[in-house]
């Protein structure tokens, strides 16, 4: 695993280094999920997906879900806009990188493991290039606020890379290598997991019309309470109680992350209650992104259920491959909903 993830990876380090890197990830992710910038970016992606389906009868959904979550992550972390060439390059390298995770660690030319190690090196160079550009810009624009490294994303406090390269980053004392590694770790944690859950939601909802109808009513009520085209916000999200239940139930059914096996490094006294479902891990390794993933999925479901009906071919099914894949890529037959609520 060290060969693929690198020695500074949050997923591998323990003790003080883990605590430090984890704090960096937790503070940014928890702050982002409730910001208007994040909601705007998320809704733009939802709307773009719905728009891109116009005039189509079928969509291969699982691929779209992966592109969606990758676009959201690279925009939030690195300010890479959807459709940028660099974003597609990162997605491609990420797919190769992730295949290596579940392969035998045999390093010979062309083996999945060797290709993943190379893909990780390319990803690392891509992030380093972006860091270099921002440092150069910062030097050439002397007198600017030193906490803002890049100047091409004018809203909010900047992206994650801005934060870790600025004053906040120095407070945590992150080395350049740690900065690169934490960007890639958050991408790794946040992209495939959320895309899989997104696909499983679409898959299960198609089979439970009563749940789908209740979900739709929840989102229709929220839409009715707003002006035409008014964006969703944190208060709306907090109204999505049934949506939250649907997400939790899908997680219970779906078993999204199944190949992370942890060993305790020391004995602990056990006195808590026994939890049967722990889709976000637990303890010191509890997923810092679960709240953000829930907002992402809730906003997506809002747009989906208000804009389209969908059906899935009878023999479609999720396969543990070991990542969750779909027999036909989750091919949906879609039909737009023409109602006045939208
Ligand atoms: C449905 C969505 C998600 C699921 C099911 C999920 C699941 C998990 C699980 C089971 C772990 C613990 C793994 C371990 O023991 O090492 C974990 C860790 C992690 N997740 Fe998530 N995750 C999701 C979304 C996200 C998102 C959106 C982000 C980032 C924005 C994220 C970032 C991370 C990070 C950085 C870790 C490592 C934490 C640490 O080692 O301290 N995850 N996730």
From TrEMBL:
It is found in: Membrane. Transmembrane segments: none annotated. GO terms for molecular function: heme binding; iron ion binding; monooxygenase activity; oxidoreductase activity, acting on paired donors, with incorporation or reduction of molecular oxygen. It holds the Pfam family p450. It is a single-pass membrane protein. Its main location: membrane. GO terms for biological process: brassinosteroid biosynthetic process; brassinosteroid homeostasis; sterol metabolic process. PANTHER family: CYTOCHROME P450 26, CYTOCHROME P450, FAMILY 724, SUBFAMILY A, POLYPEPTIDE 1. This is Cytochrome P450 724B1-like. It comes from Punica granatum (Pomegranate).
